Amino acid sequence: MDQRYATSPDNVPGMDTAELRRRYLVQDLFAPGEVRAVYTHHDRVVLAGISPVGTPLELGTFPEIRSEHFFDHREAGIVNVGGTGTVTVDGVEHVLTKGSCLYVGRGAQVVSFAATDADGDDGAASFYLISAPAHTAYPTTLVEAGQGTQRELGDALTSNRRTLNQYIHEQGVRSCQVVMGVTRLHPGSMWNTMPAHTHDRRTECYLYFDLPADARVIHLMGEPTESRHLVVGDREAVISPSWSVHSGVGSASYAFVWAMAGENQSFDDMDGFAISDLR
Ligand SMILES: O=C(O)C(=O)C[C@H](O)C(=O)CO
Ligand SMILES: [Zn+2]
């Protein structure tokens, strides 16, 4: 598992493009027939891409987390960004259509992933997983795409009209730390999360998907008064430490999975600032 050690905002001004990308951008998370994982020491979040083809893939443990099973002291949220597939948790099969979200609670032992419809427009199932340490076991629960709490945000006039789906959150599927959902930009809107915010209580990760192969999202990061950018492609993720802005503009339409973990689970606990204060 790739290790990404935690960084301070003081490190950012000294980083060139390659180092910013090495620290905060996660590329190549999805490889056919493989489980790939990254451990960020920011709130000890694990990001994984699980891409079964033909035979199912099991999520085993990793030496870095020192446990017999992956979920011995962890929980996870999983969103399928590809064609329909299944996640089987200790013998119980859950069908995940594209965009659906499964919460897996602490204590699960055998968790396996399968693609069941690889021939459709979305290709084989591609499962994106975000995990954080968990102190207790909440029930494993599926939320179908679009069935969480929906918020309509932004305006077409400011090119940021979008639908935000909250799946794992305080008023929805319960968890110890993980908060997770999917936001999709409306046709013609390109900006996400603008006006932007930070939340010093939580690390957040974005996985951009449904972006055409030749398009990119220019993702803003860094402290609001010392911003930098990452150029991000389809199915690439960004690690956003608690002190970092996370907002982006696409050169084409896109969606993204957002997920957080840390001190609290209060979605609206954000430190907002005016666009005119960005530097
Ligand atoms: O479109 C948005 O705005 C978002 O999706 C915001 C993220 O959910 C977020 O940053 C939550 O803290
Ligand atoms: Zn945020």
From TrEMBL:
Pathway stated in the Swiss-Prot or TrEMBL entry = Glycan metabolism; pectin degradation; 2-dehydro-3-deoxy-D-gluconate from pectin: step 4/5
Family designation: Belongs to the KduI family.
Q: What's the name of the protein?
A: 4-deoxy-L-threo-5-hexosulose-uronate ketol-isomerase
A Pfam family of the record is KduI
User: Which Gene Ontology MF annotations are present?
Assistant: 4-deoxy-L-threo-5-hexosulose-uronate ketol-isomerase activity; zinc ion binding
- InterPro entries under this entry? KduI (IPR007045), KduI/IolB_isomerase (IPR021120), KduI_N (IPR027449), RmlC-like_jellyroll (IPR014710), RmlC_Cupin_sf (IPR011051)
Q: Does the keyword Oxidoreductase apply?
A: no
Record: residues binding Zn(2+): 197, 199, 204, 246
- Keywords on this record? Isomerase, Metal-binding, Zinc
> How the cofactor binds, per note?
Binds 1 zinc ion per subunit.
Q: Which organism is it from?
A: Cellulomonas humilata
Q: Does the keyword Metal-binding apply?
A: yes
Cofactor(s) listed in the protein's UniProt record: Zn(2+)
Any single biological process term in GO = D-glucuronate catabolic process
Catalyses which reaction(s):
5-dehydro-4-deoxy-D-glucuronate = 3-deoxy-D-glycero-2,5-hexodiulosonate
